[in-house]
Amino acid sequence: MTQEEKYELFDRYCSKELSSAQEEILIKMVKEDDALAKEFALYQELNSHLEARFVSEQEKETLENNLKEIGNSYFTKKRISKETKVIKIPVWAYGAVASIVLIFGVYFFNQSDPVYSDYANVPELSISERGSTEEDGKKAEHAFNSEDYVKAEEYLLVLLSKDKENTAYQFYYGISLLEQGKYSRATQAFEGIYKNNSSYKYKALWFEALNQLKQKKYDQCVVLLKGIPKDAEDYNQAQKLIHKLK
Amino acid sequence: MANTKIHADQKYIEALLRNDPLVLTEMYKKFAPKVIGYIKKNSGDESVAQDIIQEVLITIYKQAKEKGLQLTCPFDAYFFLLCKRRWLNELKKNTDTLVTINEEIVSISDESIHFVEETEIFNAKHKLYSEMFDELGKACKELLKASFTIKSMEEVASKLGQSYGYVRKKKSLCIGKLTQLIQSSPKFNQIKKLL
Question: Hey, which CATH number is domain A118-245, 3.40.50.150, 3.40.50.1000, 3.40.50.970, 1.25.40.10?
Answer without folding.
Answer: 1.25.40.10
